[in-house]
């Protein structure tokens, strides 16, 4: 391949990964040129960590992926704060907002996605800007705006922020809600989440899983309103809060801050205007190429095999695959199965593939609201094709491995993966108190059975097991055992008149 | 209760002799009510009470086994049981009942136990020929007659209306009778009273796997008429009709309260004699009702347990007691429906406020387990208990083994363990040889996978093989070459261990000992013959498993001649003739060529012998020469020539050391760093004749290039600049394994010591026919353990193992020379015991590439030694 000038539009996580791979693979050494046109100011950053910055567990600079110096040293032309307004495929040039034109031999669109504003009246002021109490949460600028708003209020300028409403109960919404609730070194903000679907994370979890998560959020101080849409920004119903959010059920939530996290859509305007095929995203084939062989698309803006991902895993995979191809390697992007992790203090969620697909396969699941965990595997022909783990990620490594490798499991192995590895041995029939009725048919108590030395004797004297027989295993375990130490105030069998409405226990 | 005013003993009349009526009488007898009262039972059915709950088993066990009163009468003479005596009227004013025959019977107390009748929904065609209910033995007999296959053997088709508990029992009955069975349930799921949606769905999957068809959320509109008054099918609303030869209504029951209605006793709105907590009619204190015909507080109970409770309370009350009161019943149920465990107990639908559901659902394994839990209230002292939970109820489908524990937990309000998931764990599940994927083929001869093996032993599966032998018979695994048997055994035993089943590790039915235990027993007691061993520690006369094993153990320890005394008869075919039998019944002869080094003179002898006896010759993989095609009676002649030339047995036939292969080593090779040939010869001569659990092979390479392929051997030695590296537990064969380094850079003396210990430790502790690699694998700790024992002498066994090997070395003698010297042993080598000079005529040869080979057309099955050649035959 003769040396080419490659222009990357976008400077997000996919773009950085592509540039890194090209630099490492010697694109520039071979005489190629590389220009990155980023719309956001400053160095690229790890968007996944924005909620950590909000929470205060990460410094802003800790999220930087590559600083300007790295680009300079590598010989990559990095231009940030420039917006590409058009692609002229015929002339092989892109046009910037400044009317400047940049020529390319090859173009990669990595424009990501743009947040969508929910249809809430009063969010946007007549001049097009957001209401001052309303924040989007997609970029570092948004994140800074939000932290400033929280800090300003602290300094006493405005109504202090004590309450926040997060619109959107997806991964980002829950991350932001938790970040606000757990701000490092700050007073916590009471946060409420409004989700239009009937449960949170509805794209990743089924209802029981989401309910476990919702209970967990409640325990951590975050209330979730599901099946409720925010319709209008109104005056606060309470005098000590700044605004109110009216829900479609008529309820008004008093708050000081509204954060919008209700999803985004692929940024496809450039591609569409350039006449490239766009459906939900910019359509690319297995080589991540559009219909124009000189134009590629990767990351959140790309649509491969009918899917737009929105997760960093596939975006990075696309970036490295494309880089390998551009460096001359024969490699195709086969599509990866998505892996999503919720990054929020005190909440553990991992989702592999699409566990909510009703056609996915056989479901093996454990829902345990007591342990606040939900584990769901979708198994097809013995292979895990999707999984959702909430609250207990102890098996996530193993499950991910089995999922990635397509390991065929035996008939009980999927179930075994969900069950605790060891039993504490805490509970058996032996722990039943003496007055617990063991045989319902004959009305026989544990104490009466403990007094028997054999099953025959138990049958003859108490008639236990002679009815439906369902109690037989418990009866066998109880025969001639000692009562549990903590059986209550009157533990000895002899002190315990057997409750005998039927006389069947004589 | 006092006698009646006229001095007559008061009489209790019981109407109906079902399970509850019987329970009443039994309790009356047992608790002394008959001391003061006479009891008359008037029953309309022709047979005494039987176990209706177990009605499904009628086809298997018959009416006799179901009967609750097999003698047909009560032993107590004060109880009179009158069958086929229907009561048609009650006259409360005169306190009499009238029977169908017109007889009147007076009562002082009247106990109604008339039970319930199946509810037949008023659909058109419900009375057609071929419509049935499922309630009595007579119903079942009628169904059986209708379910018989058609004259051309065609299976009948049947529909059960009702997918509740009774409907599924009826479906089970039809299915047992070989009827193609459909179940139609109006509710959106099966067993709507007991199960929730997911539980019902799991049950459907189980049932459909058996070949039944389930239609839920479907209403039946009419029973279709074939035009002759017979059932042709069932019409459904908004669905295609189901063609059927018989229709069974099992859509619930209704109390049989007509007698009571006629007698103007008050009945509940939904049927049943309205009674108080003592089961006394609210209209008449002399009348009682128990079981399904009663409606305490207006509610009818369709299970036997509440009926029994009612019977006991009435007896109690009549005895003058006042404690008994019926205040409702636990409607928990556990049943096996169509082979599927189903249980439902307590608040199964989580209707209690604050109740939470803990659910384990495994569609792959067909399991559904739900626990309904709620936060525990404050304890007895009024202290609030955080994170403490109690069980309110639950649903179990597919595995209801926990029911016996869980249901009492509901009633007792005991606190749940910290992680209640443990309560719904299967009894015990371990890691089932997780290293091997399920699809891995374990037996390549018969293409048996690990999954096939697990299916065969699955305690809930259809085969439920109990031991290794059954698994082999069932799957064919290990029945051909047998090389996979230890793996099969390991998988099976791991599985049994994981399900908590006693694993029988005994050698065979004659010895309840493992090979290792048997080895120790022989060593301790110093037994010298099989008879001594079996008499002291076994039973019977032994079999082809234990006899060669004991022979091998005796040989390992005593190093006697394998054909000595009774030992000869214990041996496998090959050992029995000190040669390897081949496919056409001839034998092959392999003289030992230690280290593969041979003089031209000896080569010439082998050539001459082969030429003179017309034998096929081939160089083996173990660097020696195999002579094929020798008839049994020629073996002594051939060996006489060989022994005279200085050869000895190569033990190619034995479970013993075969060869120690070597490269040419430092003597000739430009790369060799040690004299590998010398070491190979030394080792082969040291361990020759060593009887072991399986064959043993060795190799010695003179440098790291490893030309002797030593790492594919049970023990391999590779020369280093500083000495030798010893590798152990490798093998070729069906599952090749590289030997692994046991100890590195040791001198020759240490090498031999470690090898002595290693081999003896193996011989002592391995299972029969277990080569070194699976043996090491089977040890706890694997090779690390071997190293501890052999190199570090962790068990202090070192000197003992060395001494055992020294004893072997000292007592070694050549088996073939000894055989030739002994006329008695020689006498075995004839084809026919009654015609010693006649060669076996079945043996024939062809010629390929200038040498003889077995005749292509000749039968290729192995020769049946037992039938035609009884001489010294192993059994």
Automatic annotation (TrEMBL), chain A:
Region (Disordered): 484-506
Family matches, as Gene3D superfamilies: BFD-like [2Fe-2S]-binding domain, FAD/NAD(P)-binding domain
Chain ranges of the BFD-like [2Fe-2S]-binding domain: 438-480
Cofactor(s) annotated in UniProt: [4Fe-4S] cluster; siroheme
Low complexity: bias regions: 484-495
Family matches, as InterPro entries: BFD-like_2Fe2S-bd_dom, BFD-like_2Fe2S-bd_dom_sf, FAD/NAD-bd_sf, FAD/NAD-binding_dom, NasD-like
SUPFAM superfamilies reported in the protein's UniProt record: FAD/NAD(P)-binding domain
Biological or metabolic pathway of the protein: Nitrogen metabolism; nitrate reduction (assimilation)
Keywords: Heme, Iron, Iron-sulfur, Metal-binding, Oxidoreductase
Domain FAD/NAD(P)-binding: 5-306
Family: Belongs to the nitrite and sulfite reductase 4Fe-4S domain family.
Name used for this protein in its record: FAD-dependent oxidoreductase
From TrEMBL, chain B:
Nitrite/sulphite reductase 4Fe-4S domain boundaries: 654-791
Domain BFD-like [2Fe-2S]-binding: 441-493
Alphabetized Gene3D superfamilies for the sequence: BFD-like [2Fe-2S]-binding domain, FAD/NAD(P)-binding domain, Sulfite Reductase Hemoprotein, domain 1
One Pfam family cited in the UniProt record for this chain: Fer2_BFD
Catalytic activity as recorded in UniProt: hydrogen sulfide + 6 oxidized [2Fe-2S]-[ferredoxin] + 3 H2O = sulfite + 6 reduced [2Fe-2S]-[ferredoxin] + 7 H(+)
Pathway terms, separated by semicolons: Nitrogen metabolism; nitrate reduction (assimilation)
Residues in coiled coil: none
Keyword annotations from UniProtKB, A to Z: 2Fe-2S, 4Fe-4S, FAD, Flavoprotein, Heme, Iron, Iron-sulfur, Metal-binding, Nitrate assimilation, Oxidoreductase, Thioether bond
Domain FAD/NAD(P)-binding intervals: 11-294
Family annotation (PANTHER family): NITRITE REDUCTASE (NADH) LARGE SUBUNIT
Protein name in UniProt: assimilatory sulfite reductase (ferredoxin)
């Amino acid at each position: 391949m003769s040396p080419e000038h490659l222009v990357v539009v976008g400077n997000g996580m996919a773009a950085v990964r592509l540039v890194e791979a090209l630099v490492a693979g010697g694109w520039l050494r071979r005489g190629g040129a590389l220009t990155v046109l980023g719309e956001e100011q400053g160095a690229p950053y790890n968007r996944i960590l924005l909620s950590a910055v909000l929470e205060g567990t990460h410094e802003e600079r800790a999220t930087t992926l590559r600083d300007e110096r790295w680009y300079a040293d590598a010989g990559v032309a990095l231009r940030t704060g420039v917006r590409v307004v058009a692609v002229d495929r015929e002339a092989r040039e892109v046009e910037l907002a400044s009317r400047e034109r940049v020529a390319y031999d090859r173009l990669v669109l990595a424009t990501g996605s743009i947040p969508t504003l929910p249809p809430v009246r009063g969010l946007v002021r007549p001049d097009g800007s957001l209401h001052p109490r309303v924040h989007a949460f997609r970029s570092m600028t948004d994140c800074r705006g939000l932290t400033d708003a929280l800090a300003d209020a602290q300094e006493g300028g405005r109504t202090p922020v004590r309450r926040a409403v997060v619109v959107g109960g997806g991964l980002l919404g829950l991350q932001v809600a938790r970040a606000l609730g757990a701000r490092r070194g700050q007073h916590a903000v009471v946060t409420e989440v409004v989700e239009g679907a009937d449960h949170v994370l509805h794209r990743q979890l089924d209802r029981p899983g989401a309910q476990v998560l919702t209970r967990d959020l409640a325990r951590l101080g975050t209330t979730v309103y599901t099946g409720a849409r925010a319709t209008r920004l109104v005056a606060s119903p309470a005098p000590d809060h700044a605004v109110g959010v009216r829900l479609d059920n008529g309820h008004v939530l008093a708050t000081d801050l509204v954060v919008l996290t209700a999803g985004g859509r692929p940024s496809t305007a450039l591609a569409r205007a350039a006449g490239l095929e766009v459906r939900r995203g910019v359509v690319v084939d297995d080589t991540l190429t559009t219909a124009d062989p000189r134009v590629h698309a990767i990351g959140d803006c790309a649509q491969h095999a009918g899917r737009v991902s929105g997760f960093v895993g596939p975006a990075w995979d696309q970036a490295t695959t494309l880089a390998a191809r551009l460096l001359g390697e024969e490699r195709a992007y086969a599509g990866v199965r998505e892996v999503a992790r919720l990054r929020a203090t005190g909440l553990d969620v991992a989702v592999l593939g699409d566990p909510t697909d009703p056609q996915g396969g056989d479901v093996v699941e454990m829902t345990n609201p007591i342990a606040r965990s939900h584990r769901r595997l979708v198994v097809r022909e013995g292979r895990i094709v999707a999984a959702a783990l909430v609250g207990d990620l102890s098996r996530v490594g193993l499950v991910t491995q089995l999922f990635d490798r397509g390991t065929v499991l035996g008939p009980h192995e999927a179930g075994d993966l969900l069950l605790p590895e060891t039993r504490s041995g805490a509970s058996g029939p032996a722990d039943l108190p003496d007055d617990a009725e063991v045989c319902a048919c004959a009305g026989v108590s544990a104490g009466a059975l403990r007094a028997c030395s054999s099953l025959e004797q138990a049958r003859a004297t108490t008639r236990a097991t002679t009815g439906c027989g369902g109690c037989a295993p418990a009866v066998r375990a109880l025969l001639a055992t000692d009562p549990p130490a903590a059986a209550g105030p009157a533990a000895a069998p002899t002190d315990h008149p057997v409750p005998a409405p039927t006389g069947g226990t004589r | 209760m006092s006698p009646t005013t006229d001095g007559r003993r008061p009489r209790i009349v019981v109407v109906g002799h079902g399970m509850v009526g019987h329970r009443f009488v039994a309790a009356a007898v047992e608790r002394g009510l008959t001391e003061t009262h006479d009891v008359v039972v008037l029953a309309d059915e022709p047979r005494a009470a039987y176990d209706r709950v177990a009605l499904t088993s009628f086809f298997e066990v018959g009416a006799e086994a179901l009967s609750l009163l097999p003698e047909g009468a009560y032993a107590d003479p004060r109880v009179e049981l009158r069958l086929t005596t229907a009561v048609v009227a009650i006259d409360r004013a005169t306190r009499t009942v009238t029977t169908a025959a017109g007889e009147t019977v007076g009562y002082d107390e009247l106990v109604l136990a008339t039970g319930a009748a199946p509810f037949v929904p008023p659909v058109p065609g419900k009375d057609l020929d071929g419509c049935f209910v499922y309630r009595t033995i007579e119903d079942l007999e009628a169904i059986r007659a209708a379910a018989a296959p058609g004259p051309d053997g065609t299976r009948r088709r049947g529909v059960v209306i009702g997918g509740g508990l009774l409907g599924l029992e009826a479906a089970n009955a039809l299915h047992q009778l070989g009827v193609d069975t459909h179940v139609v349930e109006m509710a959106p799921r099966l067993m709507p009273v007991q199960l929730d949606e997911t539980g019902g769905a799991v049950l459907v999957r189980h049932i459909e796997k058996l070949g039944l068809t389930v239609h839920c959320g479907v209403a039946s509109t009419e029973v279709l008429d074939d035009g002759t008054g017979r059932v042709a099918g069932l019409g459904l609303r908004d669905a295609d009709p189901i063609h059927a030869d018989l229709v069974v209504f099992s859509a619930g029951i209704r109390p049989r309260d007509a007698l009571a209605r006629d007698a103007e006793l008050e009945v509940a709105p939904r049927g049943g004699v309205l009674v108080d907590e003592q089961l006394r009619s609210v209209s008449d204190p002399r009348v009682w009702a128990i079981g399904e015909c009663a409606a305490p507080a207006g509610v009818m109970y369709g299970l036997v347990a509440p009926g029994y409770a009612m019977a006991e309370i009435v007896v109690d009350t009549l005895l003058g007691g006042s404690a008994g009161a019926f205040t409702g019943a636990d409607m928990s149920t556990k049943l096996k429906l169509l082979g599927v465990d189903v249980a439902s107990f307590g608040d199964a639908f989580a209707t209690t406020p604050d109740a939470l559901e803990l659910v384990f659902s495994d569609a792959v394994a067909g399991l559904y387990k739900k626990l309904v839990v709620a936060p525990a209230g404050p304890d007895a002292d009024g202290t609030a208990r955080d994170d403490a939970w109690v069980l309110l109820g639950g649903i179990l489908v597919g595995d209801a083994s926990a029911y016996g524990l869980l249901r009492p937990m509901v009633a007792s309000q005991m606190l749940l363990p910290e992680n209640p998931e443990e309560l719904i764990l299967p009894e015990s599940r371990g890691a089932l040889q997780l290293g091997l994927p399920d699809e891995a083929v374990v037996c390549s001869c018969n293409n048996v996978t690990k999954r096939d093996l697990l299916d065969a032993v699955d305690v809930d599966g259809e085969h439920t093989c109990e031991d290794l032998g059954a698994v082999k018979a069932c799957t064919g695994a290990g029945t051909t070459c047998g090389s996979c048997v230890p793996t099969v055994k390991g998988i099976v035993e791991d599985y049994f261990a994981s399900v908590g089943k006693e694993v029988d590790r005994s050698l065979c039915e004659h010895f309840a000992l493992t090979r290792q235990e048997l080895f120790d027993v022989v060593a301790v007691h110093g037994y010298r013959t099989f008879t001594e061993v079996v008499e002291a520690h076994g039973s019977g006369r032994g079999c082809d498993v234990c006899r060669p094993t004991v022979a091998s153990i005796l040989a390992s320890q005593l190093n006697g001649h394998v054909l000595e005394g009774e030992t000869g008869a214990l041996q496998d075919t090959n050992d029995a003739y000190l040669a390897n039998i081949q496919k056409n019944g001839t034998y092959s002869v392999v003289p030992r060529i230690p280290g593969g080094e041979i003089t031209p003179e000896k080569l010439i002898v082998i050539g001459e012998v082969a030429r003179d006896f017309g034998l096929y010759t081939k160089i083996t993989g173990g660097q020696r020469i195999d002579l094929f095609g020798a008839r049994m009676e020629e073996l002594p002649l051939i060996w006489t020539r060989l022994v005279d030339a200085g050869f000895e047995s190569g033990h190619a036939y034995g479970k013993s050391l075969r060869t120690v292969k070597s490269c040419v080593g430092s003597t000739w090779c430009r790369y060799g760093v040690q004299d590998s040939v010398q070491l190979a010869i030394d080792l082969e001569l040291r361990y020759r004749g060593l009887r072991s659990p399986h064959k043993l092979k060795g190799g010695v390479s003179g440098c790291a290039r490893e030309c002797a392929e030593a790492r594919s051997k049970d023990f391999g030695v590779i020369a280093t600049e500083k000495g030798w590296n010893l590798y152990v537990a490798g093998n070729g064969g069906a599952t090749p394994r590289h030997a692994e380094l046991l100890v590195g850079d040791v001198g020759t003396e240490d090498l031999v010591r470690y090898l002595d210990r290693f081999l003896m430790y193996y011989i002592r502790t391995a299972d029969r026919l277990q080569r070194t690699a699976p043996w090491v694998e089977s040890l706890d700790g694997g090779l690390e353990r071997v190293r501890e024992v052999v190199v570090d002498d962790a068990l202090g066994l070192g000197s003992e193992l060395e001494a055992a090997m020294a004893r072997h070395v000292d007592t070694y003698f050549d088996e073939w020379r000894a055989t030739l010297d002994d006329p008695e042993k020689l006498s075995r080598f004839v084809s026919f015991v009654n015609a010693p000079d006649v060669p076996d005529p079945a043996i024939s040869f062809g010629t390929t590439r200038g040498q003889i080979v077995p005749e292509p057309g000749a039968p290729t099955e192995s020769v049946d030694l037992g039938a035609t050649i009884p001489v010294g035959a192993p059994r």
